[in-house]
Amino acid sequence: MRKFLGFLFLLALGACFFLPQVQTELPKILKQSQLTVAQAAKNIGVQLPLVGRQEAAGATPVESIVRPQTLKKTYYYHFSADVPVKVQQVFERAIAVYNETGIVDLVAGQATAEQNEITIFVYQKTMTAKQVNYLELGKGGPEIQQLTGFQGYTANHARAGLNVKYGQSIKESVAIHELGHALGLDHSSSRQSVMYPIDQGLTQLSAGDLKALKYLY
């Protein structure tokens, strides 16, 4: 019993001695860890923040303006008046790919201000002589609308479009990529992801793409 009491006394004495040091050093340790992580990311060419722990688990990065679990899974999509039938058909197939996941639900129709929507459009952009080795096939992205208060809401009024100046853009893989941006996915360094910056003809979402969508919705 005396040995046990002596052990408790030594333990308490040690705590009194080391605890102030731990409290002093802990913020420095945490700060250094953050610097180390940021530096490591810089060294491998990754831009922080990505998807937090989800990124470490292999998820596709997400657009910084899209906060997880703040948007409803349902989106209403519509085509601008000048979108050719061929482009509409390409986007319809791309939309089916996302709907098959069960994570989001893309429905044809017009949205209200409080609802998520995707406007699908076309444009024509000619690349300059200096850009001859790079073709801009499309563009897209989220636009977050917020209203605070008792009747507040958060909605994504997104856009996704193809550069019809070049026939290479009118592909299902490009439409899937631009819809991914509209839903909040950012570019990925993984060649298995539909969000890889260079079109590879992929028409199925990777495991990382699905993780990111689940993270968001």
Automatic annotation (TrEMBL):
<dbReference type="GO" id="GO:0006508">
    <property type="term" value="P:proteolysis"/>
</dbReference>
<feature type="domain" description="Peptidase metallopeptidase">
    <location>
        <begin position="67"/>
        <end position="217"/>
    </location>
</feature>
<dbReference type="InterPro" id="IPR024079">
    <property type="entry name" value="MetalloPept_cat_dom_sf"/>
</dbReference>
<keyword id="KW-0479">Metal-binding</keyword>
<protein>
    <submittedName>
        <fullName>Predicted Zn-dependent protease</fullName>
    </submittedName>
</protein>
<keyword id="KW-0378">Hydrolase</keyword>
<keyword id="KW-0645">Protease</keyword>
<dbReference type="InterPro" id="IPR006026">
    <property type="entry name" value="Peptidase_Metallo"/>
</dbReference>
<dbReference type="GO" id="GO:0004222">
    <property type="term" value="F:metalloendopeptidase activity"/>
</dbReference>
<keyword id="KW-0862">Zinc</keyword>
<dbReference type="InterPro" id="IPR001818">
    <property type="entry name" value="Pept_M10_metallopeptidase"/>
</dbReference>
<dbReference type="GO" id="GO:0008270">
    <property type="term" value="F:zinc ion binding"/>
</dbReference>
<dbReference type="GO" id="GO:0031012">
    <property type="term" value="C:extracellular matrix"/>
</dbReference>
<dbReference type="Pfam" id="PF00413">
    <property type="entry name" value="Peptidase_M10"/>
</dbReference>
